């Protein structure tokens, strides 16, 4: 038995499996909506299905998601196409990918697309009957639906042109936004046809292109948002304003659970230039002013006395990250099995050598470039309008409606592009500014924009949970692993927010359970221990630490058995051709596997290898390191990724490079520590991230196995920490089992 990872919570079987690669597609409601897993998450997220478009009321008839062409496409008179995407662009290139997929079937160059995030509505629940930008799941979950959307729209254009020209549909073809009749040399643009086309009933079946004829899918199409981002035209939430808006800056309680009691200099602060008012909030105070800078100066001047409150998740005054790790180390409960096979007791009893090890990883901040912000406005028609960064518009619509005492259809959500992603923009308790914006806008009767400073962002971020794992492994007389017993101890975001009653938290064990290596007897246990801080999803979720734990211990088993870790992995993948091919590919990419130590340019170096299977993709990583002045220096990272198939190879390469950078930063430097119930890192001066001078060369190879589409935004992260740690061990003989690695001072 293998318990699925957190990816399975998002995935109720790939939607694309219901879509043929070419020919005619007949989409059933069941094929689009998925089954039990989808229904579970949708129920948790929405508490009720939203309307087709926000503002129409929950009783409106829900269409089959992804089939109402006018809900997605606006074909403009200048030949451009506006696509309302179900997904939020946050740097992962989703807008370009959606333009490629829809444009391929619609027959419009992706460069002519303008892509915006769609408002809440049942039309956009295309992720197995729900809507969520996360889990590296957007393209792979909607690939078939978006292709069919483009094909359906193209079919409507041909039918409208046939009626206008009084010609058989079979005699018409399309070319980049134009319907053409070759024999008579007549043509009509989509813009000329759109009004008539949108009045036609969409066909239940529409021909899809043969992949062999693809012009844009599978090609490195330039990103459509590059120009706006590079020229400053791109609008993020912190850039937005609305008429008659007040600015709010916030001072949070030092410890979650405290409430404002009294102000020592209230009159002086109220008299500061531009100040409108001082407002109390749950766990915080806000100053409203005519500019954010004035609001910030005022709120930072305000002298606040804090008292303990009644917050449900208040942090104890004596809570510390060191104490939390000690509690995880001290937990010896058996937990619940996430994976088990073979006779573990007999395998250990007959082994030639048995080893044990414990690994841990710290709390991590998201440290996104754009600080959190939100704008709230109550309109005269009784609606609430919100502009806020988010990864799930329907979730935020439902949450805001409950806070405001409104029906969800009375809440309008605007979802600007995100200036940072990484799992930050979900519904985390006390970690988002939009509840403050709603409360303040209601209190003062004007639109209010709340913008947190960097210090307030770090103080109230929802952190990646601290991780701990205990391993016991054995090798046989031939040096190959014969037994493995692992226990993951702690808490994960899937268990906290989605499956609290299940014995196994999938986000705690992914990257440990379900690894592809052949080991005759193994067991992985999930030992749940609640953690007081607000925890969150973080780029690659449990894989971000668990693959470090597992792949490092696998190298320890190789050393115990006198085996080369690369060759041992290859032997353990003899019945897994997809992973074995990828491992050989990364070795070839690196110029051939060599562990070392060896000398290059007069510097002593070594290499480490690791593999990971996150979010439907497979990844193999090799790192080359040296030690200089006690610090780890990573010279090169070679990463081979198999996403099944590539929609945009250039975006995949960029995402792998980005993921590798954050994976290296987290493994070498990043850490949040708690003392006295409060995080000690409040800005980048104390929360170190990888500087440009320590960025290695990153080499990427995409290997298309033809498997189902996998994710690309997160899979590049988890292989980096173990590959670096394994290289360090090969170079120094010192095994690092605790992150970040900067805690260990290594000799020259």
UniProtKB/TrEMBL annotation:
Residues 231-310 form the Aldehyde oxidase/xanthine dehydrogenase a/b hammerhead domain. It comes from the Bacteria. It holds the Pfam family MoCoBD_1. This is Xanthine dehydrogenase family protein molybdopterin-binding subunit. InterPro entries: Ald_Oxase/Xan_DH_a/b (IPR000674), Ald_Oxase/Xan_DH_a/b_sf (IPR036856), AldOxase/xan_DH_MoCoBD1 (IPR008274), AldOxase/xan_DH_MoCoBD2 (IPR046867), AldOxase/xan_DH_Mopterin-bd_sf (IPR037165), N-heterocyclic_Hydroxylase (IPR052516), OxRdtase_Mopterin-bd_su_IorB (IPR012368), TAT_signal (IPR006311). It comes from Pararoseomonas baculiformis. SMART domains: Ald_Xan_dh_C (SM01008).
